[in-house]
C-alpha cells in the first residue's frame, strides 16, 4: 500500500521555486470555502489591491491567472494578438524564444531582435526594428531573463514602443518583488509574472496586469480570444470589482490563500526594502563566489541579484556537483538551460530564500564539494570574503 508522501526538506536556491515562507504554508492549510463565498470574494478584492501594489499600478485589469506563469504569458499573447498581427519579439535567452512560439500560435508574425545570451536587450536594435516595422502591434521582451540572469531596461524599451504607438508584453516572472518594477510609471501594457520566485509562494498562479490601453484592444477584438479559459473578457466577469461575480471557473481557493499571505508579507516588508534585501544578499554571494574562483555570466551593470548565473570551473562536472549538494546538504541549485547547459549554475536568491543563512549554506557547501573534487581553494575562503564584504 502506498503511504502518504512526505518529502525531505530542501533549501531551494535554484531558478525557482524558492523557499516558501512558513506563514504561507500555514495559510495554504486553512479551511476551504466556496469560490463564490462572500468571504472569498472579499479576499479576491484584497489580492487585486495587493497585486496592484506589487506591480506598482492602478490597472483595473489586474488578477492572478489560475495556472502557472506560462499561462500568464499565454494570456497576454492570446488576448492582444489576432491572426495577421505583427509582433516584435526580443530574444536574449530561453524565454524570449517562448514568446516567439506564442506569437506563432496566435496566427501572428514574429519579427525577432536577438542579443547574446547574458546580455540585456539592446534598445538601439529595438528602435531599428520598430522603425522598420511601423505596423507592429506589440513589442515583447523579458524584463528578467531567468535562463541567464540578465535584466533589460524595461523603462527605455517601453518608451520606444510608445513612440511608435506599439503595445508592450513584458515577462516579469523573475523580477516581481525582487528588483524595481513600476508598471504605470514605465508605461507597460501587458505584464505577467509567477508566484514561485520572489513572492516565495507555491507554484501554480500567474499574476497579470493589463493597462487600460491594452484592455481596450481586448474589448474591441475582431475575433474571439482563441482560449476560452484565458479570455480576459470572460475572466473579468469573475475577477471584476463589486460583490456580484459571474461564475467562470472554480478558483484554486487554498492556493489563493497562499498568494494573499505572500503579498501581505511583501506589503509588510515594503517593496523598496525587498529590492534592497535582494541586492544585499547578492553582494554577499558574489563576494564568496569570487573567493572560490567562480565568475558571473552577466556584467554587474545589468545583473539580476535574485538569479545568479555563474560559470562552472574548468574540469568540474556540473551534474555531479549539483547532485552532491542535494544529497549531502539538501541544497538545490539550478543547471543551465539551452546554450548554457553544462556551462553554468543558476543560483537563486529569491524571496524567502534571499537571506544570510542561505548564502552561507550555499557558499560553504559549494566550497567543500569543490575542494573534494580537487579544486585548489583555501578552506573558509568564502566565509572570509563575505565577512569582509559585509564590513566594507
From TrEMBL:
Q: Which SUPFAM superfamilies match?
A: PLP-dependent transferases (SSF53383)
Catalytic activity, EC: 2.6.1.44, 2.6.1.45, 2.6.1.51
Coiled coil (residue ranges): none
InterPro entries, from UniProt? Aminotrans_V_dom (IPR000192), Aminotrans_V_PyrdxlP_BS (IPR020578), PyrdxlP-dep_Trfase (IPR015424), PyrdxlP-dep_Trfase_major (IPR015421), PyrdxlP-dep_Trfase_small (IPR015422), SP_NH2Trfase/AEP_transaminase (IPR024169)
Q: Where in this chain does the record put each Aminotransferase class V domain?
A: 32-336
In its UniProt record, a GO molecular function of this protein is: L-serine-glyoxylate transaminase activity
* Biological processes, Gene Ontology terms: glycine biosynthetic process, by transamination of glyoxylate
For substrate, which residues are the binding ones? 346
Cofactor(s) recorded for this entry are: pyridoxal 5'-phosphate
Which residues does this entry mark as bearing N6-(pyridoxal phosphate)lysine? 197
Under which main EC class is this enzyme filed? transferase
Keywords on record: Aminotransferase, Pyridoxal phosphate, Pyruvate, Transferase
What Pfam families does this protein's entry cite? Aminotran_5 (PF00266)
Q: Which family does it belong to?
A: Belongs to the class-V pyridoxal-phosphate-dependent aminotransferase family.
Q: What is this protein called?
A: Alanine-glyoxylate transaminase/serine-glyoxylate transaminase/serine-pyruvate transaminase
- Species the sequence originates in: Litorivivens lipolytica
Amino acid at each position: 500500500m502506498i503511504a502518504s508522501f512526505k518529502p525531505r526538506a530542501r533549501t531551494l536556491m535554484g531558478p525557482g521555486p524558492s523557499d516558501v515562507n512558513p506563514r504561507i504554508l500555514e495559510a495554504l492549510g486553512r479551511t476551504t470555502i466556496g469560490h463564490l463565498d462572500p468571504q472569498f470574494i472579499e479576499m479576491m478584492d484584497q489580492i487585486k489591491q495587493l497585486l496592484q501594489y506589487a506591480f506598482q499600478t492602478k490597472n483595473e485589469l489586474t488578477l492572478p491567472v489560475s495556472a502557472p506563469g506560462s499561462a500568464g504569458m499565454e494570456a497576454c499573447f492570446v488576448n492582444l494578438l489576432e491572426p495577421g498581427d505583427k509582433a516584435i519579439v526580443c530574444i536574449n535567452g530561453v524565454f524570449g524564444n517562448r514568446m516567439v512560439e506564442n506569437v506563432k500560435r496566435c496566427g501572428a508574425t514574429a519579427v525577432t531582435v536577438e542579443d547574446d545570451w547574458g546580455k540585456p536587450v539592446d534598445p538601439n536594435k529595438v528602435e531599428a526594428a520598430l522603425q522598420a516595422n511601423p505596423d507592429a502591434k506589440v513589442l515583447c521582451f523579458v524584463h528578467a531573463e531567468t535562463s541567464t540572469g540578465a535584466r533589460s531596461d524595461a523603462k527605455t524599451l517601453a518608451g520606444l514602443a510608445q513612440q511608435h504607438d506599439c503595445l508592450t508584453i513584458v515577462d516579469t516572472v523573475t523580477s516581481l518583488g525582487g528588483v524595481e518594477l513600476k508598471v504605470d510609471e514605465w508605461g507597460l501594457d501587458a505584464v505577467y509574472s509567477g508566484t514561485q520566485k520572489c513572492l516565495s509562494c507555491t507554484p501554480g498562479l500567474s499574476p497579470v496586469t493589463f493597462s487600460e490601453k491594452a484592455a481596450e484592444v481586448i474589448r474591441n477584438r475582431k475575433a474571439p480570444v482563441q482560449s476560452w479559459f484565458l479570455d480576459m473578457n470572460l475572466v473579468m466577469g469573475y475577477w471584476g470589482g463589486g460583490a456580484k461575480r459571474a461564475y467562470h471557473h472554480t478558483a484554486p481557493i487554498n492556493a489563493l490563500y497562499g498568494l494573499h499571505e505572500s503579498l501581505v508579507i511583501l506589503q509588510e516588508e515594503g517593496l523598496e526594502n525587498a529590492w534592497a534585501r535582494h541586492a544585499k544578499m547578492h553582494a554577499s554571494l558574489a563576494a564568496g563566489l569570487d573567493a572560490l574562483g567562480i565568475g558571473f555570466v552577466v556584467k554587474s551593470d545589468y545583473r539580476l541579484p535574485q538569479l545568479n548565473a555563474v560559470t562552472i570551473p574548468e574540469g568540474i562536472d556540473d551534474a555531479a556537483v549539483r547532485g552532491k549538494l542535494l544529497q549531502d546538504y539538501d541544497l538545490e541549485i539550478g543547471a543551465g538551460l539551452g546554450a548554457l547547459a553544462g556551462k553554468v549554475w543558476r543560483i537563486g536568491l529569491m524571496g524567502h530564500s534571499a537571506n544570510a543563512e542561505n548564502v552561507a549554506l550555499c557558499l560553504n557547501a559549494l566550497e567543500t564539494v569543490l575542494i573534494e573534487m580537487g579544486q585548489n581553494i583555501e578552506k573558509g575562503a568564502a566565509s572570509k570574503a563575505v565577512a569582509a564584504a559585509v564590513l566594507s
